[in-house]
Amino acid sequence: MAFPGPAYDGRVGEDILASYPSPSGRAVTKEITQLDDICRAFIEMCPLAILSTASADGQPDLTPRGGEPGFIRVLGPDRLLLPDRPGNNRLDNLRKVAANPRVALLCLVPGIDETLRVFGRAELLAAGAAEIDTSERGRPARSVLLIHVDKAYMHCAKALMRGRVWDPDARVPRDSFPSMGEIMRAHAGGSGPVESQEEMVRRYQPQL
Fold first, then answer.
1. Which residues contact 12 (CB under 8 A, 6 or more apart)?
2. Can you tell me the distance from the alpha carbon of 110 to that of 36, in angstroms, rounded to the nearest whole number?
3. Angle, to 10 degrees, between the axis of helix 180-188 and the axis of helix 197-204?
4. Residue 63 sits in the same domain as residue 138
5. Residue 2 lies in a domain
6. 87: domain range?
7. Residue 74 lies in a domain
């Protein structure tokens, strides 16, 4: 199948969208403009979130952010604090926030198929500017994103149910896929011994 290139006619997309029924009922009314007690409780259980950003010209990016449950701090009904932990220093998302403050978060909790979607505007701040302790396991954050919430809503469970995301029987053995060392050799080149998955895990431990 040939996919459309740069000359793709957006009117085709509009025709496809018009073929869907309009949303109604709870799909529309569930959107709220502040974090309520339910959202707060979900975020306090959340150990993993996907952060979405975009550059000033619209180039998108996604990155997983993880930590102990509650690593995303709820400062109030319209503010969140997201610490940044040591990584590869590409800083793709942080650079985009500096140019375009619009962000979104998809928060996940293991065992719960529903997810929480949060949309807002972020400020990139030094970790000390938060005036609260953002350290985890004794390690301070490198910086923080102060997210001013514009809207939020709980997303239905269908996608995670279809994907059996939390089903232990659906887990894939790690050795059924190339190790990160093998992936880096294939994608980035290099020579010499390939780091095993176990070696990579040991190397990561001081940064977790």
1. 4
2. 21
3. 100
4. yes
5. no
6. 28-163
7. yes
Mention every residue, 6+ apart, whose C-beta is less than 8 A from residue 71: 46, 47, 65, 83, 136
What is the pTM assigned to this prediction?
0.90
User: Is residue 21 in some structural domain?
Assistant: no
CA distance 67 to 21: 39
Q: Counting Cβ atoms within 10 Å, is residue 35 exposed (0-12), middle (13-18) or buried (19+)?
A: buried
DSSP class of residue 91 equals -
Is there a single domain that holds both residue 100 and residue 196?
no
| Percent share of the chain, pLDDT over 90 | 77
pLDDT per residue as tens digits for the range 163-204? 999 999 999 999 999 999 999 999 999 888 999 999 999 999
Using alpha carbons only, what angle is made at residue 48 by residues 44 and 52, rounded to the nearest 5 degrees?
A: 110
Residue 140 shares a structural domain with residue 52: yes
